[in-house]
Amino acid sequence: MIDVTENSVLLNWSASTDVDNDTITYFVYFSNETNPSFNGTTTNLNFTVNGLEHNETYYWYVVASDLTSNQTKTETLTFNVSLSNNPVINIISPNSL
């Protein structure tokens, strides 16, 4: 799941578990190339990427690791960015206050 605001995106994913109860670290790969490059790590279930550009397609995946020998990669996901959408304006009349 993703949440795009302004020129940034909040990437979200489901938690991984470890049979030894080790802490899981998530390695985030993200770019506008079909083979995303490493972007950062987190122990959270989300990661913010800034600097999105209008009319670009972005690709991302996450590798969950217990930092020993166990790791799992998600599928590569894509999304398109349009930063020129018209705003939604709700008109509030004085009678509805």
Structural summary, described in words:
With 97 residues, the protein is mainly β. The protein is 0% helix and 43% strand. It is built from no helices and 8 strands. It has strands at 2-5, 8-12, 25-31, 38-42, 46-50, 57-65, 71-73, 77-80. Strands 3, 4, 6, 7 and 8 form a 5-stranded antiparallel beta sheet that branches. Strand 3 (25-31) and strand 4 (38-42) form a beta hairpin. The protein is elongated, with a radius of gyration of 18 Å. The mean pLDDT is 84.
Write the layout of secondary structure elements.
Layout: E1 2-5, E2 8-12, E3 25-31, E4 38-42, E5 46-50, E6 57-65, E7 71-73, E8 77-80
Antiparallel strand pairs: 1-2, 2-5, 3-4, 3-6, 6-7, 6-8
Give a brief rundown of this model:
This protein is mainly β and 97 residues long.
| Overall pLDDT level | 84
Order of helices and strands: EEEEEEEE
Task: Report the β-strand fraction as a percent range.
Answer: 35-45%
- What kind of assembly state do the chains in view correspond to? single chain
Number of distinct beta strands: 8
Gap from first CA to last CA: 35 Å
Shape: elongated
Largest sheet: 5 strands, antiparallel
Rg over CA atoms, rounded to whole Å, is: 18 Å
Helix content: under 10%
Poorly predicted regions: none
Query: In terms of structural class, how would the helical and strand content be classed?
Result: mainly beta
Given the structure, what is the number of helices?
A: 0
